[in-house]
Amino acid sequence: MRASTDRILTTQAGSLPRPDELIELNRSRAEGTIDEQRYQRGADKAVTELVERERNVGLDFVGDGEFGKSMSQRVDYGAWWSYSFQRLGGLELADASLFELTHDASRSGEEVVLTSFGNRRDRVRFAEAYADPSAGVDVSTSPMSFPVCRGPLKYVGHEAINADIARFKRALDANGLDEGFMTSIAPASCSRIGNEYYDSQEEFLYACADAMREEYKAIIDAGLILQLDDPAIAENWDQINPEPSVEDYRRFTMRRVEALNHAIRGLPKDRIRFHLCWGSWHGPHTTDLPMRDLVDILLSIDVRAYSFEAGNVRHEHEWKIWQDVALPDDKLLLPGVVSHATNVIEHPELVADRIVRFAECVGRERVVASTDCGLGGRVHPQLAWAKLEALAQGAELASRRLWP
């Protein structure tokens, strides 16, 4: 992955708004009312047009928008995760809602155990707001069934990932580009489902790592950049109730980082980037763990670049930690400088200010401007593209300041 050698380069964090036509194709495909060829033609068209729009808006590192991760409605916070349910053998759907999922403490063997999504401490603290549709927070209590592991895990998504890769490479070729990235779920997030097969959470975690490694290799072997999505590294903190000690949580999290490093062992780290966030749902986020408690864990992940939230109002101030943290020479930062968490479009001057702060901390060559999280399924498409325009404009302004 290239560094910003003569100007600030730009990218985005993965998910981009799906066009209505693709959402309808996904819905029809799930219902079995269209043939596969029609779906593939529509998906090809959508990704090719997306890459053209990313290029035209000024992004240097483009992605496929996660269009291969099905969404059947515009607002969807979980497609980055739920796509893996169809790509892993050994899973069965449970009867209960995702919001009722309680992890089996007897199989954990750890100091802390994840609670259900509905019992997150942020949701408990602001229960009235989360229950009120007029409050403007994420009020989803989706009845979607969640999977439980009831057999040996194995990767069965070869046909799907190969189709995603081929589609994206055709889109890159059609737009005269030779570099792009694709996202894949990391083991810690992948393993946040029920386990009734493996004797311990650690065994299950490493089974996820070994299975998903096949998807990681497929993306890299195709000549693309791999982005590993793992909100669980930070977000799990809020999903442990009562609140654990920071020391216990750090031990809990390092086991998941070790599993991730196991999954990418031997793969070219200069072709891998990692995305960390505190959960993209629209809520107060007062129970987010500070970045200062995570930064050394983040840097222990053996990749080239680190993408993280840095533009929303809960985490923008944390740029200051990079004044004290020594970023290894071969690493890049991809801070979010426009946010999924607000409908307000960031002013390009503010975007430039945010970029310059990071550049002054770690060096201009090691900053690539990005988004906090994926914008698809989180803000209206028209607003998402306006934010990407502000990102590119802000990067241009920052480049003038940093390369006078």
TrEMBL record:
<feature type="domain" description="Cobalamin-independent methionine synthase MetE C-terminal/archaeal">
    <location>
        <begin position="200"/>
        <end position="388"/>
    </location>
</feature>
<dbReference type="GO" id="GO:0003871">
    <property type="term" value="F:5-methyltetrahydropteroyltriglutamate-homocysteine S-methyltransferase activity"/>
</dbReference>
<dbReference type="GO" id="GO:0008270">
    <property type="term" value="F:zinc ion binding"/>
</dbReference>
<protein>
    <submittedName>
        <fullName>5-methyltetrahydropteroyltriglutamate--homocysteine methyltransferase</fullName>
    </submittedName>
</protein>
<dbReference type="Pfam" id="PF01717">
    <property type="entry name" value="Meth_synt_2"/>
</dbReference>
<keyword id="KW-0489">Methyltransferase</keyword>
<dbReference type="GO" id="GO:0032259">
    <property type="term" value="P:methylation"/>
</dbReference>
<keyword id="KW-0808">Transferase</keyword>
<dbReference type="GO" id="GO:0009086">
    <property type="term" value="P:methionine biosynthetic process"/>
</dbReference>
<dbReference type="InterPro" id="IPR038071">
    <property type="entry name" value="UROD/MetE-like_sf"/>
</dbReference>
<dbReference type="InterPro" id="IPR002629">
    <property type="entry name" value="Met_Synth_C/arc"/>
</dbReference>
